[in-house]
Specification:
There is one protein chain. By secondary structure, the protein is of the alpha+beta class. It is built from nine helices and 18 strands. The protein folds into two domains: 284 residues, Aminopeptidase (3-Layer(aba) Sandwich); 109 residues, Alpha-Beta Plaits, CATH 3.30.70.360. The strands form four sheets. It has an eight-stranded mixed beta sheet, sandwiched between helices. A hairpin with a 3-residue loop joins β12 and β13. α1 runs antiparallel to α3, α3 packs across α9 and α7 crosses α9. The protein is globular, with a radius of gyration of 24 Å. The model has no long low-confidence stretch (mean pLDDT 96). The structure holds zinc ion (ZN).
């Protein structure tokens, strides 16, 4: 099968996860549809220990045919996001001539003016949506690249060490990898193949925490409120005004951290604010947490016992652990170089399954897929870039 045929086959399988069912893994039964296809293909390719476990994770091993290689893992996730439809994906393959590409019968166009990534892709084969769904290159692009790499290694009988692959559910709702069984994945290090621009390599993520701010007011008839009423909703607004206004997602990029108000609700008697707190630098994250505690103590001085802050850590920047064993980084950067790609390292402004795996004991940086505009109907894949990433992953797997 070609990389393109493989990709088109996988994106047509509906694997939307569901964030309202996040206590069960998988969150949707239909993720097994793709898991079963992959299991059959892995068995047909001759991989060993192929299984789908009770959490819908697909594991498989390609035993070494030569000695002296590191044991390397590759991972990609099967689900697509809950928020935008991934049902009845109708991919459209075009050679991009620089003119706007109409998405199906909609009035939506994929064009350079809106998406500057397209500038460097004139002449490339682009796969778009029909304007009504995601494409699901996030992360079936990664799955297609890994599966094609395995087929190439097996059919061309390339020399390689022990290779482990895993396809996980529910990455988009952050729960799939929590059930990951590392005993079935005995590798020296691994890579997630899940992301955008093929030139981007990332072994850094945010450090992440979430804050819940609860505010109690004093409710009384407004006609008799003078000197007595404490309006919890107004206190909530005051609380937010005490945080640094520049530290918001809409004002930050690169290595800037942020505090992001994700939800608020309030009445006169009580109000609740939910934030996520992010920074690549752990000491700066701690400073941002201090801002929350300081804002609460300020309000509590003005309005005694009004405000409580609860902060929970979510995940950490994998860089601190990867720096202790850089084999995964060195190996990847050499492969990009051998594939003549001008690679650059970026700090992911989010978390990855790899960051969680790294803290479970497997250093797992991320490789790009050549997929763009994830999580919306403008998502597209660049087949030329996917093909380059197939070359990179194959070099990683077959170079000592
Ligand atoms: Zn993804």
């Amino acid at each position: 099968m070609s990389l393109l045929d493989r990709f088109l086959k996988y994106v047509k399988v509906d694997t939307m996860s569901c964030d309202k069912n996040s206590t069960e893994t998988p969150s949707t039964e239909k993720q097994y549809d793709l898991a079963n296809i992959l299991k059959d293909e892995l068995i047909a390719l001759g991989l060993k220990d192929v299984e789908i476990n009770e959490y819908c994770t697909v594991y498989a091993t390609l035993p070494a045919n030569k000695e002296g290689y590191d044991k390397i893992g590759f991972l990609a996730h099967m689900d697509t996001i809950p928020e935008v439809s991934g049902t009845n994906v109708c991919p459209n393959v075009v050679v991009f001539d620089g003119n706007p590409i109409r998405l199906g019968n909609t009035d939506k166009y994929l064009k350079i003016e809106d998406f500057s990534s397209l500038k460097k892709q004139v002449g490339h084969t682009i796969i778009t949506t029909d304007g009504t769904t995601v494409l699901g290159c996030d992360d079936k692009g990664g799955i297609a690249i890994i599966m094609q790499m395995l087929e190439d290694i097996v059919t061309k009988n390339l020399p390689h060490g022990e290779i482990h692959v895993a396809f996980t559910p529910d990455e988009e709702i952050g729960t799939g990898v929590l059930k990951f069984d590392i005993s079935k994945f005995p590798v020296d290090y691994a890579y997630t193949v899940d992301g955008g621009d093929y030139c981007e390599f990332s072994y850094e993520t945010f450090n992440a925490a979430q804050a819940t701010v609860k505010i109690k007011g004093f409710e009384i008839h407004p006609g008799f409120a003078k000197g007595k009423m404490i309006n919890a909703s107004l206190l909530a607004m005051e609380f937010n005004s005490l945080l640094n206004p520049n530290e918001r997602p809409e004002y930050t990029s690169g290595y800037d951290g942020f505090n992001h108000l994700t939800e608020m609700n309030g009445s006169i008697g009580e109000a609740t604010l939910h934030y996520i707190i992010r920074n690549h630098d752990l000491s700066l994250l701690e400073k941002q947490k201090e801002e929350f505690y300081n804002a609460a103590s300020f309000l509590n001085k003005k309005y005694p016992n009004s405000t409580t802050v609860e902060i929970k850590d979510q995940y950490k920047n994998m860089r601190v652990l990867i720096e202790k064993d850089m084999r995964c980084v060195d190996k990847a950067l050499k492969a990009y170089k051998d594939a003549s790609i001008d690679v650059y390292c970026t700090a992911t402004r989010g978390g990855t399954d790899g960051s969680q795996l790294t803290f479970m004991g497997i250093n797992t940086p991320n490789l790009g897929t050549g997929g763009y505009n994830e999580h919306g109907v403008f998502e597209y894949a660049d087949l030329n870039e996917m093909t380059k990433m197939l070359e990179v992953t194959t070099l990683i797997a077959t170079t000592k």
